[in-house]
Specification:
Arc Repressor Mutant, subunit A; alpha+beta; 12 helices; 2 domains; about 325 residues; two-stranded antiparallel ribbon
Length: about 325
């Protein structure tokens, strides 16, 4: 069972594992060597990925275990995949879904519309950021066709998607490195459903995260591009999928949607928050209401407790960007 459980870690969203990550997942890292000796894993950089034979065995064992998982391929950037997975595992162990549920997804397959190049949505001159989000014709079209004061779920999801396609504004894939969806008081909310809740975000707080491998070269323009795409995703949910109940849940409580940039070291996180914080709330203007933060794997690894909620977790570890920087 040990070999099977370790091999089945290598799914399409988590294709790269090393000894530390396997141990963090509660498995025996020595099994990696056994699987490699059997030709099921190959050594890639400082970790392991499935071989062709390993992918075949993954499919067999997944089917026998009734798992709807696909085997992972060797990624283009194993180091980045390792950082994403480590962040997810650290998020998993660092706070509870207080009286509710918590779901963490690595590289979720999402999409956004309208199809607008992110650089078309802003202009950056030095540290002066000017947004052209609201006046973009395709953004305006989505807002006009799908006003926020509609009754949520008054149309089925298929009908809504048909209307979106009918606008001719296009769609593009979008995948943040990490999505953490947290729902407090599950018993209080579990009966609430909206047919058009495409991404399962109703009555939840959401943390979106991007790993920054080289924060020293990550500049204001790249941050603005991240915010442009994030803002399009929020536009879709506020106007199309969950009008009137995305930022305020069905019981009139605030639902938070926050963005994080994750770095390797705490000093990198502080420095990045300080640089990006020079833009203040202008950085997240088209995504409001929201907040942006940095967080480091170093701080997450040092965190020796399990916070009772994600609010406490963020307060303990995250560095504010849009609330004044580091």
């Amino acid at each position: 069972m040990g070999k099977e459980s370790v091999l089945l870690l290598f799914d399409e969203k988590r294709p790269f594992w090393n000894r530390k990550l396997v141990e963090m997942a509660g498995e025996d890292p020595s099994v990696l060597d056994d699987l490699a000796a059997e030709g099921l894993l190959e050594r890639v950089e400082k970790g392991f990925c499935l071989t062709g034979t390993g992918r075949e065995r993954f499919g067999k064992w997944a089917a026998e275990s009734w798992l709807e998982s696909n085997p992972g391929a060797v990624p283009d950037d194993p180091d980045l995949e390792g950082m994403k997975l480590e962040t997810a595992l650290l998020f998993e162990r660092s706070f509870r879904g207080f009286q509710g549920t918590k779901k963490i997804t690595v590289s979720p397959d999402m999409e956004i519309f309208p199809d607008v190049p992110p650089r078309d949505l802003f202009q950056l001159r030095g540290e002066d950021l000017q947004w052209h989000f609201d006046e973009n014709p395709r953004v305006s079209m989505i807002r006009e066709i799908f006003p926020r004061d509609r009754e949520p779920g008054e149309e089925g999801l298929d009908k809504v998607e048909e209307r979106v396609d009918g606008t001719g504004t296009g769609r593009v894939p979008w995948s943040p490195h990490l999505l953490c969806v947290n729902q407090c008081d599950y018993v209080y909310y579990w009966r609430s459903r909206v047919d058009t809740d495409r991404w399962g975000l109703l009555n939840t707080d959401r943390l979106f995260l991007k790993v920054i491998k080289d924060p020293g070269s990550f500049d204001l323009e790249e941050a603005a591009m991240d915010m442009a795409l994030f803002s399009l995703f929020l536009l879709d949910n506020r106007h199309v999928y969950l009008p009137g109940c995305f930022d305020i849940d069905v019981h009139q409580q605030s639902a938070f949607t926050w963005w994080f940039w994750a770095t390797e070291t705490q000093e990198e996180a502080r420095s990045l928050a300080s640089r990006l914080g020079t833009l203040g709330r202008d950085l997240v203007s088209p995504a409001e209401p929201t907040d942006a933060w940095t967080i480091s794997l170093e701080a997450l690894n040092r965190y020796d407790r399990k916070a009772d909620s994600f609010y406490e977790f963020v307060d303990d570890l995250a560095i504010p960007v849009t609330r004044g920087g580091a």
